[in-house]
Design a protein that fits this description.
28% of the residues lie in helices and 19% in strands. It is of the alpha+beta class and 148 residues long. The strands form two sheets. Strands 5-2-4-3-7 form a five-stranded antiparallel beta sheet, with no helix packed on it. A two-stranded antiparallel sheet has the order 1-6. The radius of gyration is 16 Å and the shape is globular.
Length: 148
């Protein structure tokens, strides 16, 4: 069962990589998003990107946000490392481990109100699903019915 789950997740990852490559996103050189020095990334640092056309709407729908970066085509939210585990981020969003993003001269456009650079990943994920018209997809076994 674990082998079939791993195969399914790898297939999804390959499918998402191919779709992103065909969009031209991967052809841009990777840039690591640099957090302001006063903010501590003690949980590691990944990023979730969405096309710029969704940026303001997504930002306005979140109860809280951390650092948000943007370039001409994409907006990037800083999330704790591993925020891609057990779920599939909907296309056209892009999950970037290590906050290594395909962006040209991204700039910090929003700072958090506190000392945490992170946007909570679950509200961000649910908003991304809503904006893209995608049903949230959790990995098998997550959130299943409780046994008595």
């Amino acid at each position: 069962m674990l082998k079939s789950l791993a195969t399914l997740l790898l297939a999804r990852s390959a499918r998402h990589s191919n779709e992103r490559y065909s969009s031209g996103l991967v052809e841009t050189p990777l840039t690591r998003l640099a957090l302001p020095p006063a903010l501590s990334a003690h949980l590691g640092c990944d990023a979730v990107g969405v096309p710029a056309r969704h940026g303001f709407r997504l930002l306005g729908g979140l109860p809280r946000y951390g650092c948000v970066f943007a370039d001409t085509g994409w907006w990037w939210w800083i999330v704790p490392a591993g925020s891609d585990l057990e779920l599939t981020w909907p296309l056209p969003s892009h999950y970037a481990r290590g906050a290594q993003v395909p962006a040209v001269n991204p700039r910090l456009i929003r700072r958090p109100d506190d000392t945490s650079p992170y946007t909570p990943p679950i509200p961000l994920y649910l908003m991304a699903c809503q904006l893209t018209g995608t049903a949230p997809l959790w990995a098998a076994g997550v959130g299943g019915a409780r046994s008595a």
